[in-house]
Amino acid sequence: MQLDFFPSRTLTVYLAKMFITRILAVLVMLLLVLMMLDLLSTSGEILAVEGNGQGELLTYVSLRIPQLVARFLPYSVLLATLITLVGLNQNSEVVAMKAAGLSAHQVLAPLLLTAALVAVISFTFNERVVTRATETLKAWEATEFGALPPESATRANIYLTDGQNVLSAASISGSGDDLVMAGVTWYRRSPEGMIVEQVRAPRATYAEPGWTLEQATRFEVANAGSEKIERLVVGDQITPSQIDFAAVDPDTLPFWELSDSIARYEEVGRRTTELRAKWWHKLSGPLSSVLMPLLGSIAAFGLARSGQLFLRAVIGMALGFAYFVVDNAALAMGNFGGYPPFLAAWAPFLLFFLVGETVLVRTEE
């Protein structure tokens, strides 16, 4: 038996090329299907806006595809694992490799190495491309697919409180005193918490103090009457620094920028549980690709003629999808404070790593 973790160079390259080809093929297939389904549900909203056409649809596709890649790349690795290992088993290539003295871990080593490379590429892609695309797409959706906002410092769906009152904005661009809100709504509430007045404006700028609503429409709840107002200053207690804190979206910030935002939150005593969980998950999420060959490895072994190959493939797929379910549930619990952030992000990975190793060792080693 070989003492090296990897098999021969020729066999390693052969298995790695086979695996990466199937990952790309499955990913392209998933992207085509999911993007078509997404367009069926969204194209009507985009084209309903006057002036939008094929160019806006292509823009939506270019912004949506990075999100789909980030979400479904681990699924692609899982399905590619099953396709690769089932094929090797059916062609008796696994039997030949084990007859040559390779252990189960050595057979899987090229796949694990390829999955680790995919995880590194996935992390880089998420932080350099997906975060920017998500930021732009969220801001565009906040304007109901109207004018595409500029890419620089655009944030969406901000809610701020001024005592009992609430100020919301569909999107915010700029920084400091130069902040500009778009799609603004001001809710004035009574001491009992009931909304007594609503003011909508297409734009708001900082008035030092307060925010100037331009071309606003005021609606009085008491008499159900509305009136046009040229200018109105609201939210005297809301400052640009509060907006900077309220506008932190972990899905739109790269790993290193999110670290700075968490540090600023902790300096002023703000709750950072959700941000910490997302911060850790930016590492554990891409690394889940490394788990897929281990969880799907049950499909590689056993005699193909025994009639249990299909059952083994189903078990491998079930283990892989169970990981994604548990991972999402743990992250949700971490966001609500039920789990510590580190545990919410890493517990599913460690748990299923042990499950995969246990199954592999007890059945094949």
From TrEMBL:
The record ties this protein, via InterPro entries, to: LptG, LptG/LptF_permease
Where in or outside the cell is it found? Cell membrane
Judging by the UniProt lineage, the source's domain of life is Bacteria
The protein's topology relative to the membrane is: Multi-pass membrane protein
Does the keyword Cell membrane belong to this entry? yes
Keyword Cell membrane applies: yes
Q: Name one Pfam family in it.
A: LptF_LptG
Q: Which keywords belong to this entry?
A: Cell membrane, Membrane, Transmembrane, Transmembrane helix
TM stretches of this protein: 20-40, 68-87, 107-125, 283-303, 309-326, 338-356
Q: What is this protein called?
A: LPS export ABC transporter permease LptG
Q: What organism does the UniProt record list as the source?
A: Qipengyuania benthica
